[in-house]
Amino acid sequence: MYTERRLNYLESFNIQHDRRYYSAGFKAEVALAAIKNEKSTAELAKNFLVHPHQIELWKNYLLNNLSLVFENAENNTKNPIKYNHNPHAKIGQIMAENDFLTKVLGR
């Protein structure tokens, strides 16, 4: 009985009873728009369909953790990804491994 009343209440006031989950890209887009200050928080909330307080939380989180972006960039330069720029060398390596495995397996 309680659940029926609650569902009727939610439907009559058009309240969502499911939790929304936002992607990191969406949060970043909203937070950047808030940092630019081109529109007010209320206008951003209306455009992105997010509560104004949530926008402020994402904005503050971005501003407080902005240094982490550059810390991760420093870590990426210490361990660069090594690419093999010579495809012929890679083909030769694979052929040598294939010949070795053929001899070992006796095929």
Description:
With 107 residues, this protein is mostly helical. Helices cover 72% and strands 0% of the residues. It has helices spanning 2-12, 24-36, 41-48, 52-64, 66-78, 87-105. The longest helix has 19 residues, at 87-105.
Count of discrete alpha- or pi-helical segments spanning 4 or more residues: 6
Judged by helices, strands and strand pairing, the structural class is mainly alpha
Percent helix, as a range, is over 70%
Radius of gyration: 27 Å
Which stretches of 5+ consecutive residues score pLDDT under 50? none
Short summary of the structure?
The chain has 107 residues and is mainly α. The chain has helices at residues 2-12, 24-36, 41-48, 52-64, 66-78, 87-105. The protein contains 6 helices and no strands.
Question: What secondary-structure arrangement, pairings included, does this model have?
Answer:
Blueprint: H1 2-12, H2 24-36, H3 41-48, H4 52-64, H5 66-78, H6 87-105
Helix pairs in contact: 2-4
Question: What attributes characterize this protein structure?
Answer:
mainly alpha, 107 residues, 6 helices
